[in-house]
Amino acid sequence: MAKDRTTIQTPDPGVGTPPRDSGRSLDVLQTELAKIQVDGDYTKKFLGELQADMRDIRDRMAKLEVKVDHLPSKGFIVVVVTTFLVIAGGLMTIAPKLWSWAGTATISASTTR
Predict the structure, then answer these.
(1) Contacts for 34-43 with beta carbons within 8 Å, 24 or more apart?
(2) Is residue 96 within 8 Å of residue 106, measured between CB atoms?
């Protein structure tokens, strides 16, 4: 059978560009614009909350800096610990002499049976 060239074949659905419907295009455009507006409102609300949180963090950091200023420095802590260790070591070194001057008995490490 010979094909008639005067008949127009319809393209397969989903192939090529869809036919334009101006009413449908406008509806899609309005829907997408409404979605963008909602997203913009959400972003504005989120940024407002973020700004409030950042103010809170800034205020808390200022309070923390004031509290940290009152803490002793690292140098002071090192000096105190070193002094304590020197005094404790000196007392352990001269403890037997102090016991003998005081007249108290020394404690021996060995036990007899």
Answers:
(1) none
(2) yes
Whether 1 has a pLDDT exceeding 80, the answer reads: no
Structure confidence at residue 101 (pLDDT)? 84
* pLDDT at 67 exceeding the cut of 60: yes
> Nearest 5°: phi and psi at 86?
-65, -45
Single-letter residue type at 27? D
Distance in angstroms (rounded) separating the CA atoms of residues 5 and 86: 111
Task: Summarize pLDDT for 83-106 with one digit per residue, the tens.
Answer: 999 999 999 999 888 888 888 766
96 CB burial (10 A radius; 0-12, 13-18, 19+): exposed
Q: Any idea what DSSP says for residue 13?
A: T
Give the pTM: 0.41
- Give the whole-angstrom CA distance, residue 83 versus residue 79: 6
